[in-house]
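Supplementary Data S3. Sequence and structure tokens for construct A.
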Amino acid sequence: MVKDGIPFVLVPAITALVFGVFQIWTGVVVFVLLAGFMAYFFRDPERVVPTEPNIVVSAADGRVTRIEDRDGGKFVSVFLSPLDVHINRSPIAGEIVDITYTPGKKRPATSDDASLYNERNALTIRNGNYRIVCTQIAGILARRIVCWPSAGDVLERGQRFGLIKFSSRTDLLLPKEAEILVKVGDRVRGGETLIARLPEQL
């Protein structure tokens, strides 16, 4: 379990103990179940990161909800339900050249304008001539975006870099040369599923 989830597990667990002392068994059951769900939500499974060169892996677990060609490149969006693993992982190896946090609203993460108005945190990761922007977007249930590294840090492909607490979305803006390897509706796993392939750099 990721350390950020420990308080979310301890509080209902302690509350369940207090109810137990007073033999209020309904309260015990409710808060034990809540503690169990929190432990499940903040799980942090190991992943086998592909080693194939010039690939982009998913930054999150979830379902692909949008693939678009945009002026800035190719766009892939992954929606995370409350039952998905919420750890975010770096889609490529590279240096974080910029981190931009934008406060905002908490509209449903699947809405078209969530990337414009919701709370979000965008990491720009550079590998040679390529730059990929990975954006953590808070959803209607999200309470906090967590990002551990700082600008200037170097990430390995598939390395954990943060999480979004509760329902959320993770977007990738890829170079226009990228070959997209997923389709809308696909289930993906952070750090494992191939999202795209990039041309070999000169």
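Construct B, processed identically:
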Amino acid sequence: MTGIIFTGGEGPEKRFIENEIKAGDYIIAADSGLDRALLCGYSPDLVVGDLDSVKNKTFLDDIPADCVKIFPEDKDETDTEIALRIMKEIKVDRVILAGGGGGRLDHLLGIVSIFDRSYYPDVWYTAMEKIVPVSSRDEFYGMLGKTVSLFPAGKEPCRIKSTGLKWNLDTVQWSKGDAGISNIVVEDPFTITMVTGKVLLISFLKEFGE
């Protein structure tokens, strides 16, 4: 089953995520992610969080009480973490995260830190970026000429093999604090194979300057 988490912060336009979401997918809105979900035309199955940042509170009055889980403002998990935990508990095997861009840096870094854990989103969309964790071998299509950047995630050093990038990564070994900024896709598809570790592959939803 696929699950979609809409969270607060700057999120993607509907056109960038609508092919990811199918009928029957389970949608959770984390706090003000409710506003993003409704803006994109999706009614969540569950709303979670302290709900202090939600603007469209009318929706909350029109859904069953068991579809809303309110948590105190003072808690050990962020609203995004709560939503992700619920996805794990109901055994969702593919998670799409939408939102979390811009805004407070601590919230942004909090989401980035989730990818160091054992259960994390399969793809993350902000307003401008698409972030995909790569832990084995992945092929990426339709990105010829696009800019991509890579950051190590997790605790293990990263050893990488690649094809189709302007700057080949076959000799690269990264640890936390290293990064590969602004590589260029020169073949379609291009591939990334992780020998050890995990990376976050960042591509851009819009051309620079749009």
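The chain has two domains: 2-127, 133-204. The domain at 133-204 is CATH 2.60.120.320 (Jelly Rolls).
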